[in-house]
Design brief:
alpha+beta; six-stranded mixed sheet; two-stranded antiparallel sheet; 30% strand
Length: 224
């Protein structure tokens, strides 16, 4: 982003404090228009997402994910005060010095999922933008317009960046993971159902079909 100041985002943050930090940095750099916070969150800090990922072992078998520290979700986002008529009057417990904060950003991740066509790993490259509004109460969250996604803060007005991103990634996962083309699929080593065959039965000569009327030849009928 042009004319931006880049800062490392804390793992857990208070949006209001982060906005004030950004405003202070912008006051020191008049040429900058925004402060962009960025971070790389490893998958092992996102247990719900990690449970859906797979890895391919050395033997080629698919197993549950064993996540390395290098893999994860990358994010860049900016924060600003969200102004909407009526929000301030909703509740007296919203302090004047704690405005509603909006986050806009983008995330990216390479997710190894199981292809539902060939059952082998397929890499899904996720590139998504998001727009969130942090809410301090259910009342504030319910008042948000439909095009905004409210995110609840904890009692201290903070949120975990990993949990926030995990929710966004889970929201944008494909309903059915597949390779982009059938040519990319590998149908080797797929455990198709096997039917047991009795070899002795297969080697037996075919049985002669009995004539159902053969028994009649031994019956003597009276002749008049």
């Amino acid at each position: 982003m042009a004319n931006s100041i880049f800062e490392e985002s804390p793992a857990r943050f208070n949006p209001v404090s982060l906005v004030r930090q950004a405003e202070f940095k912008l006051s020191l750099t008049p040429s900058a228009k925004r402060v962009v916070f960025r971070a790389d969150i490893p998958f092992d800090r996102m247990p719900r997402l990690a449970a859906l990922l797979i890895q391919e072992s050395n033997s080629g078998e698919i197993s549950s994910a064993s996540i390395s520290d290098e893999s994860g979700v990358s994010v860049e986002f900016s924060l600003e005060t969200y102004a909407r008529a009526g929000i301030e009057e909703l509740s007296d417990d919203i302090a004047r010095d704690a405005p509603t904060i909006e986050a806009r950003g983008k995330l990216s991740a390479g997710l190894l999922l199981q292809c539902q066509r060939c059952l082998h790993p397929c890499l899904y490259q996720m590139e998504e933008t998001f727009r969130l509004v942090f809410a301090t109460s259910e009342k504030v969250a319910d008042a948000m317009p439909d095009d905004l996604e409210p995110v609840m803060l904890d009692d201290e007005g903070c949120i975990s960046l990993a949990e926030m991103l995990e929710d966004e990634v889970l929201l944008h996962l494909p309903a059915v993971a597949r390779h982009q083309t059938e040519e990319e699929c590998s149908f080797e080593n797929i455990p198709f159902p096997q039917h047991k065959v009795d070899v002795d039965v297969m080697n037996e000569p075919p049985r002669r079909k009995e004539n159902p009327f053969a028994v009649l030849k031994d019956i003597k009928f009276d002749q008049h």
